[in-house]
Design goal:
With 554 residues, the protein is α/β, with parallel strands linked by helices. It has helices spanning 2-12, 17-27, 31-40, 60-64, 67-77, 115-126, 155-163, 166-176, 188-197, 217-224, 226-240, 254-269, 300-307, 336-348, 350-355, 387-394, 428-433, 452-466, 472-489, 497-511, 515-519, 522-530, 532-540; strands at residues 52-57, 86-91, 102-105, 108-111, 203-208, 244-249, 285-290, 331-335, 364-371, 377-382, 404-412, 417-418, 442-447.
């Protein structure tokens, strides 16, 4: 269904009702079902779009790097313009946090623009000038994780086909301690073993839909080591007996998709993929599925629903994808980084992997650092390194020679930690003990002069905007949280707010279906815990020392 809908939108710019009826007859699917799916995803238009559809990322890193000024400047510049001519609105993270702020004009994404540059570009476009091309400078880096120099040779696949020691491969992954690196942290070897032991047709799915603010490391890996992502998926197929793999990639990742597709084409041409992998009797076919949009698609069961052509609403668990995944069949779902390290470990061994860490930790980690730093980017670092070294060595310190105020170890889901905890190690257990999480390694830095209540509101608003709406605690709770925190920033707090917050925390954490609802309270809960003076300043004295709040915004 999605390809048909995309074809209609490419032709008309949106999805006309008569085309949906024609599609219903063609696919023999009720039109209300097609409409239900199309209306769920943000990249489908059910009405004609304006001539210029301008969207400005509103989330954490862009919020810190001038997105507010860019958006407000655009709104003032085009105030009074007809709605059919131009629309200027907020958008959720585009996955370019290392080049914030980010703007999209008619689905073409531009990053690293100053407010003045962004306004100048949009003014020129509305005056009849063509939009400028997106400059792509892509030079592959030599990375410690990559066992190959240059093109991937898929030696791990060759060795496994020769040895046929599939149980041994699982044992290696278990011994390495490799966990899922998308945030959940489920042991990789155990996951593959569950699928191997389950009956029925099996699938391998790579979750490349990283959409949480600050999370950009999978994009980097796909651009620099596409062969390892693919090799990890082939190895998972051989180990589990799966014959089909799918890379589920976010809509905005055009360049990673192109890099992956070129490598997939090379693999088919060289017999690495296809009905006989390297001439063996083992088939493995691989394709790319482009997400129709939405942060919720990163939740594994919602992703499966999207692949099956439905609304990306999370499933109740159990059962879990290992036994009841895609088309209710056993399915391995790992993210890009996990498949990459699995391939490296199965080729280089457990000792190599464990030797890469520091301070008793095993392995490497890809970390995205953005926000108030001098050099935002993605860095390959040893586990066990301190967040201080991440920020001051790799990202070259806090921008503008300011002091560090706070940092989020993994985007909005992790909440914020104060500067006093910057010597904390990149260690799953240590960060969990501190009340946060390593998660996907999306480090967002806040410098002195930032309002942490404003940052908490920004993060909670993201979760509100991206809630799929399936369960009441998340749908209603997220809106209530945003309303309450917005009131705090404009001087409308009440004595009962604290208890209301505690009730919301408990309800959303315990009753939401998926992780989005269960973690949405983390940003404000962390600010209340670590920055009580900021809360007291806003609620007790109706003041904001950062000068951000109490401007009358609703």
């Amino acid at each position: 269904m999605f390809e048909e809908l995309r074809a209609i939108q490419r032709r008309f710019g949106y999805l006309p009702a008569d085309q949906l009826y024609d599609l219903s007859a063609k696919l023999k699917i009720p039109v209300n079902q097609i409409h239900s799916v199309a209306s769920f995803y943000p990249h489908f238009n059910l009405a004609p779009p304006p001539k210029f559809d301008v969207r400005v990322c509103a989330d954490m890193s862009c919020h810190l790097r001038g997105a507010c000024e860019l958006r407000e400047g655009l709104k003032q510049a085009f105030q009074g313009a007809p709605e059919t001519e131009i629309s200027i609105r907020d958008a959720s993270c585009f996955g370019r946090c290392d080049a914030a702020p980010v703007i999209s004009v008619n689905d073409t994404i531009y990053s690293g623009l100053t407010p003045e540059q962004g306004m100048g570009m949009v003014r020129a476009a509305t005056s009849g000038q063509p939009l400028p091309p997106v400059l792509r400078e892509h030079n592959r880096q030599a990375l410690s994780t990559d066992p190959y120099r240059g093109a991937g040779e898929y030696l791990g696949v060759r060795y496994l086909l020769e040895s046929q020691d599939f149980s041994g491969a699982i044992a290696i992954l278990k011994a390495s301690g490799l966990k899922g690196l998308g945030g959940a942290g489920f042991p990789t070897g155990l996951k593959w073993e569950i699928v191997r032991n389950a009956p029925g047709q099996k699938y391998i799915v790579c979750n490349a839909d990283e959409s949480e603010p600050g999370t950009i490391k999978d994009r980097f890996i796909m651009e620099h080591m596409p062969h390892l992502v693919i090799e990890g998926m082939i190895l998972a197929g051989l180990v589990t007996g799966a014959k089909t793999g799918i890379i589920y990639i976010r809509h905005e990742y055009d360049e990673p998709k192109e890099v992956l597709q070129r490598e997939i084409d090379r693999c088919y041409a060289n017999g690495v993929l296809g009905p006989q992998v390297f001439g063996s009797q083992s088939p493995f076919n691989l394709s790319i599925f482009v997400s129709p949009g939405g942060y919720i698609c990163g939740e594994e069961s919602a992703l499966l629903e999207a692949l099956e052509g439905r609304r990306a609403e999370p499933r109740n668990k159990p059962p879990f994808p290992g036994t009841n995944g895609l088309y209710n069949m056993p399915t391995v779902i790992n993210n890009v980084e996990t498949f990459t390290f699995a391939a490296a470990i199965l080729l280089r061994g457990v000792d190599w992997y464990k030797s890469q860490g520091r301070n008793g930790m095993a392995g490497l980690k890809f970390v995205g650092i953005s926000g108030d730093v001098e050099r935002p980017g993605v860095f390959e670092v040893p586990m066990g390194i301190s967040y201080s070294e991440l920020i001051y060595r790799y990202a070259r310190g806090v921008s503008g020679n300011r002091r560090l105020l706070a940092f989020a170890p993994s985007g909005p889901s992790s909440g914020y930690l104060p500067a006093e905890m910057v010597n904390l190690a990149l260690d799953f257990n240590a960060v969990a003990a501190a009340g946060s999480m390593v998660g996907s390694g999306a480090v967002v830095v806040c410098a002195e002069g930032r309002c942490m209540l404003d940052m908490a509101l920004n993060a909670v608003r993201f979760f509100r905007n991206e809630s799929c709406g399936k369960c009441v605690p998340c749908r209603v709770g997220s809106q209530k949280l945003v309303s309450l925190l917005t009131n705090w920033t404009i001087g409308r707090s009440s004595a009962s707010d604290r208890q209301t917050l505690e009730d919301l925390f408990q309800a959303t954490r315990m009753a939401s279906i998926c992780g989005l609802g269960q973690i949405m309270h983390a940003p404000i809960a962390s600010v209340i815990k670590h920055f009580p003076d900021v809360i007291e300043e806003h609620l007790g004295r109706r003041q904001c020392s950062a000068g951000v709040c109490f401007r009358g915004q609703a």
